[in-house]
Amino acid sequence: MSFSSETRKKTIKEIKTNQLDVLIIGGGITGAGVAIQASAAGMKTALIEMQDFAEGTSSRSTKLVHGGIRYLKTFDVEVVSDTVTERAVVQSIAPHIPKPAPMLLPIYDEANSTFNMFSVKVAMDLYDQLANVTGSKYANYTLTTEEVLKRQPYLKKDGLLGGGVYLDYKSNDARLVIENVKQAAADGGHMLSRVKAIGFIYNQDGQIEGVNAKDLVTNEVFDIKANLVINTGGPWVDQIRQLDKSKEVIPQMRPTKGIHLVVNSSKLPVPQPTYLDTGKNDGRMFFVVPRENKTYFGTTDTDYQGDYLNPMVEKEDVDYLLECVNYRYPGANITLADVESSWVGLRPLISTNGGSDYNGGDNGKITDDSFTKVVDIVTKYKEKMVDRFAVEDVLSSLESELSEGEDNPSAVSRGSDLTREEDGLITLSGGKITDYRKMAEGALILIQKLLKSEFQKEYTLVDSKTYQVSGGKMNPQKVEETLAELVEAGIDKGLTEKEATYLADLYGTNAPLVFSKAKEMKAFPGLGLGESLSLDYAMNEEMTLTPADFLSRRTNHILFMRDSLDAVKEPVIEAMADRLKWTQEEKSNYITALNKEINNSDLTELKGER
Fold first, then answer.
1. Residue 195 belongs to domain spanning
2. Contact between residue 267 and residue 332 where contact means Cβ atoms under 8 Å apart
3. Where are the transmembrane segments (predicted)?
4. CA–CA distances in Å: residue 50 to residues 109, 321, 469
5. 191 with 53, same domain?
6. What is residue 137's three-state secondary structure?
7. Are strands 221-231 and 426-430 parallel, antiparallel or unpaired?
8. Domain identity same for 262 and 247
9. Suppose 199 and one of 134, 206, 212, 315 were both cysteines; which one would form an S-S bond, judging by CB atoms 3.0 to 4.6 Å apart?
């Protein structure tokens, strides 16, 4: 099945003339998760996204399927249990995307450190039990000061007590979205990027029965009729709710801004992802992650009230992160000039919920007395002196000193919320990437119930815990073996080992389709065969409409392949202009948009100020 600019035209024609069961507004990870489950159940489903899929927030995360070990500082066992359980589900339904990447957590003798060597071991042991990796090759372990420095000699030595290592996963956030979207399309869903909801359609009872939409490619305005409309707009949730100007909408979102900076790995060599206290006594931690011969670090966490479509990396953001990374890695001496690329995103946080930011907030700082009781009971449990009921009894009676408040954006909830409003609009908001499938499952249970009770339509939901996304049709326990076989298949088609490895890792079990044209296809001028196959597949099967779609979200050229970006940029533009038959005006507009995205990533404006 093709999923391209040509099928897009047919899709728009179909949704203009057919009554849908479910219309999803928002094509980030939450909307994609709803779309795949609804389409798999046979519901007549459509999704509209005003930008490219994942462009708003879901391509701008820390790019980890994170287990949330910091929650165990406050012994929020239920949250960690949910997170690591759901992480395992994501790894099983999209096995080619999350990759195991044990995380190093250096421990320093500093005031207000998140962990000490004793508490980190308690936390990691509990974490492993919750993640069900105790006794496996991914079980946690501690390192001495000397062992930590042997791995990371650039780390600050003063005050270093040692470290802990526990299981975490690297991920590709934008690829996770597009693989869910592609599977939804394969199952009959109508998936559309660059279509914006501009108003609601109401029936005589004042209930929403569809959306007035605008195709941002052609500027055509049309109606989409649906039994149910669900808002999965991420940070834009409130703006979508406010499309009805006749009613007052109480905002429920409080977005925060996070940024990440990328440098060459030679400038900051780290062998594995690392999670550190900032050293600024601000209660936050940050990540330093190796990826594709680069190292990136982040993130900040500040309230945001600016332009949601165009959040920018500001001088204060950069100064903060550079200060943090240079404090922890004093030999690196990283400056703004060393930053090769960057990204900035908005977290769709819910303002009214008590909860925690998985990248560094608290959902209640427990008292010293309670903390001592927890450490004592967990120690006794490990020594088989008490049973788990004794542990649960202590955990259930913790005394807290809530730290959330108006001045602490990191304390705003990362929880999710599912609400149906008086006019029938369903809103699914908040959450984080790791929870997307579970959030969507909750929404689908509600949608299934409403379709039956209000529209007499019955559907059976799939088991979303086992329903694999496009490209992920493999045994989750044999990912390395499967990818190795795919690489061999690519080499047999005439690709180099490097090209075949890159494509197999990117496309999973869709790689054979990518490889299938290798012997017959002539490479696009200026591109190698592997890159040409990737671009061809992206245009035919991944609704890639612009150069930025390909270079930023279908691949990682802008972020992690900056060295070769300038060489491939023009050939990609020319190949797409020829294939998609752009007018000169369209081509010029796409080039302008691409250059703007590259300049923003390069921090061109900031670098020009210094």
1. 5-58+174-253+413-455
2. yes
3. 20-40
4. 48, 31, 23
5. yes
6. coil
7. parallel
8. no
9. 212
